[in-house]
Amino acid sequence: MRIAQIAPLHEAVPPKLYGGTERVVSFLTDELVAMGHEVTLFASGDSVTTATLEAVWPRALRLDPEIRDPIAPHMLLMERVARLADQFDILHFHMDYWPFTYFSRQPTPFVTTMHGRLDLKELQPVFDAFPDVPIVSISNNQRLPLPQAHYVGTVLHGLPENLLTPQPGPRDYVAFLGRICAEKGIDKAIRIARAVGVPLKVAAKVDKADVAYFESEIIPMLGDGVELIGEIGDHEKAAFLSGARALLMPIDWPEPFGLVMIEAMACGTPVIAFRHGSVPEVLEDGLTGAIVTSEQEAIAAYPAVEALDRGKIRQEFEQRFTARRMADDYLAIYQSLIDSRKA
């Protein structure tokens, strides 16, 4: 199958540090190549892939200090894909609603995976205007705010089976991984860790939009058993997560998926997560972690979570969350769309 994967240009594929969407695009692209498909990745020029790279901009926009208008490179990206569309059997976009207008009016089948939150009121008229655009959700919960969208499947994320594996060594802290912002619940994670009497290591980035929150609310909470490590890449995650007694994910928003949960599971590390968004679809309470609704429940659940069988957690990852399973799910959707277009 001739497949185009179209990624946003904000981060490289895979990202140098933080970046969930681009990381998933990388895993999917390389897995499709390994399965024998002819794949072209449209992305920034500093991307690294086993597919054919169609570089639309020299480097990731987040790392380019000269970029003032990030929309302009994305307009070029859309035009590049449009000019080459007839070379592919399927176009797979990872750019929200960007492709809806033009690509609904051309013959090559396409599909868009929605990677972000869909509970924004400005999205409602967009999806009302495009009721037939094929959409893939990354959890069933993600769909709830936009029931009118034309969903052709839900595909849970996956990781390469051996990207992250359990590492030997002491486990003497709990972990927080991802991004520091109010909705991710870093303040709750700090309070939970202190309440259970275990040090907390925080491997997370701070976006420009969250600097004020970080400086006013979180910096005063640091110290006293809370260590801020900063952003880490995939090559550091296995050791970081394997060394944790548990990953804390006290989110306060409708998480579309939550890649950190399966990253922890790949390392055999249990997760304590608040019951929001995709969490009940990813975690199995009592097997891979605990699903709670408050800080008090998280604190109470901690002793049982720490005692969970890490081998079984890893086994659950291998059964449900590999990149091969993700690629198989997408291939079935691609073939269905191709067949429908032919019919």
Q: What descriptive keywords fit this protein?
A:
globular; Rossmann fold; 12 helices; single chain; 6-stranded parallel beta sheet; 2 domains; 7-stranded parallel beta sheet; 13 strands; about 350 residues; alpha/beta
Give the class from helix and strand content and strand pairing.
Answer: alpha/beta
Could you give the order of the helices and strands?
EHEEHEHEHEEEHEHEHEHEHEHHH
Q: Percentage of helical residues?
A: 25-40%
- Number of contiguous helices: 12
Number of strands: 13
Apparent shape: globular
* Largest sheet, strands/sense/barrel: 7 strands, parallel
CATH class of the largest domain: Alpha Beta
CATH topology type of the largest domain = Rossmann fold
Strand fraction: 15-25%
CATH architecture of the largest domain: 3-Layer(aba) Sandwich
Mean pLDDT: 95
User: Largest beta sheet: what is the strand line-up?
Assistant: 3-2-1-4-5-6-7
Radius of gyration from the CA trace? 20 Å
Provide a descriptive summary of the structure in words.
- Residues 169-301 form the Glycosyl transferase family domain.
- This is Glycosyltransferase.
- Residues 18-119 form the Glycosyltransferase subfamily 4-like N-terminal domain.
- With 343 residues, the chain is of the alpha/beta class.
- The protein folds into 2 domains: 2-158 and 322-342, 3-Layer(aba) Sandwich (Rossmann fold); 173-320, Rossmann fold (3-Layer(aba) Sandwich), CATH 3.40.50.2000.
- 36% of the residues lie in helices and 19% in strands.
- It has 12 helices and 13 strands.
- It has helices at 20-34, 71-84, 100-103, 123-129, 186-196, 211-218, 234-242, 259-266, 279-282, 295-306, 310-320, 323-342; strands at residues 2-6, 38-44, 52-57, 90-93, 110-113, 134-137, 150-154, 173-179, 200-205, 226-228, 244-249, 271-274, 289-292.
- The protein has a 7-stranded parallel beta sheet with strand order 3-2-1-4-5-6-7. A 6-stranded parallel beta sheet has the order 10-9-8-11-12-13, with helices on both faces.
- The longest helix is centred in the C-terminal third of the chain and has 20 residues, at 323-342.
